[in-house]
What we know:
The chain is mainly beta. It is built from 2 helices and 10 strands, in the order E-E-E-E-E-E-E-E-H-H-E-E. It has helices spanning 117-124, 143-149, and strands at residues 12-15, 19-21, 32-35, 40-42, 47-49, 54-57, 82-85, 89-92, 164-169, 172-176.
Amino acid sequence: xxxxxxxxxxxxxxxxxxxxxxxxVNSFSTGAVVNLGGNISGIFPGFVDAAGQNYELADASxxxxxxTSLPPAALPERALxxxxxxxxxxxxxxxxxxxxxxxxxFNPDSDSDGxxxxxxxxxxxxxxxxxxxxxxxxDRFLDWQEYRAGTNPTNPASLLRITGLAASDSANLAxxxxxxxxxxxxxxxxxx
Length: 192
């Protein structure tokens, strides 16, 4: 809709470090809002491609580095360690030391090669030796595929592959593969 109401009921909402659509109001009823600051208002939050449902933050988004840390009482149980991945669940949230507003932490790709700078620095200490189309360890998995799988692009033994199959009966099959933390996996099957 065109109107954002922060508190639609009785009680108090403490509001801090949020992106809010321009024109928002505290309440249309008796609810109260305590504005603790750090909030950003605008028409668009600065997504890469909202129409295409890519809600990652663009370089120029006002939401980059605009969040604040959680209160100590919320940690470590509610620490921001993962972020949403459409249709898959979650992945490890990039940590550059400054929190961003939203479901995604801005992860720059300053050389526009399809690989986040942090990953290139981690494995190659530069931004020039890796790209989405390269296969740095010659394991027949492109570096972008290794990024998505959470495997090491410098180690040919580190790749996503099925390492074992076992049928327990005619209706059940067990599948083994090396997994990475904070990565969702799905097994699809067909009629044959």
